[in-house]
Amino acid sequence: MNKGELHALLGPNGAGKTTIIHMLSTLLKPDEGTAFIGGMDVVKNAKDVRKRISLTGQFAALDEGLSGLQNLMLIAKLHGYSNKQARLIAHELIQSFDLLDAKNRMVVNYSGGMRRRLDIAASIVRQPDLIFLDEPTTGLDPQSRIQVWEVIRMLLKMNTTVLLTTQYLEEADQLADRITVIDKGAIIAEGTPNQLKTSIGKKTLSIRTRHCEYKRIRGILARQHALNVFQDEDPLVFRIPVTQSRLANDVIHTLLKNDISIEGFTLDEPSLDEVFLALTDATYGEAKK
Fold first, then answer.
1. CA separation for the pair 91, 72 (Å, rounded)
2. Is the N or the C terminus of the chain less surrounded, counting Cβ atoms within 10 Å?
3. What pLDDT, in 10s, does the model give residues 149-191?
4. CA separation for the pair 254, 221 (Å, rounded)
5. Which is it for strands 203-209 and 262-268: parallel, antiparallel or unpaired?
6. Is the CB of residue 159 less than 8 Å from the CB of residue 4?
């Protein structure tokens, strides 16, 4: 990872994302292998590594009986700052994270999005070289997620390196400089969002059929064009990654020739959804067989 970039870690539930975060942040010793942060071994130099990193987990680590400002001041004091310095740092962070109107409100009365912003602010009281964000927007409404995205972009502008785990593919697409996809504890793909999208096809053909014929469509295109088919949440919509636009035309003709009734189609850029599904061998409606 390069300084000031965001690296996203993607994978299905149980793939090992949080375990990796815990090992890199020195909370868990790896069974084997080595990992280095800033040239330091995370096991042999754990104490020094902790001075350079910060971790925001899936649940906000805040004192609900204190106000937002008091939480930040407390953490600053724990880092060794004087009362005056702690108050100054806390006020700067409250303003930067758009929490000024709620600075004296008890955290128990904060919304989910406000808690996450305050939690991330608490993680950078002493600005780390690297911050781990483990699914920071899980459970938030769309507006709160976007607010947290803006906070993450602010961290990157501060030249802080970010390792992000997320279950939202759109989030990785919006924020990540590079992405690593893991499954069952192993890396199965890595690259920029565009590189990963290109790896499964330059375009995605989306078709809407009159009848739900997923198994038949999948079989026809696998035999005649060696293509994958992904069923959307809408059972009548199928997405097919294609290497070139000309192939999309061949697919349409093949399906019509096999009496598949097509009501409409579009040809778009591939999304991380297709990448994730192709790499982890899954479909929206049914496991790929």
1. 9
2. C
3. 988 998 898 899 999 998 788 888 889 999 998 888 888 889 9
4. 8
5. antiparallel
6. yes
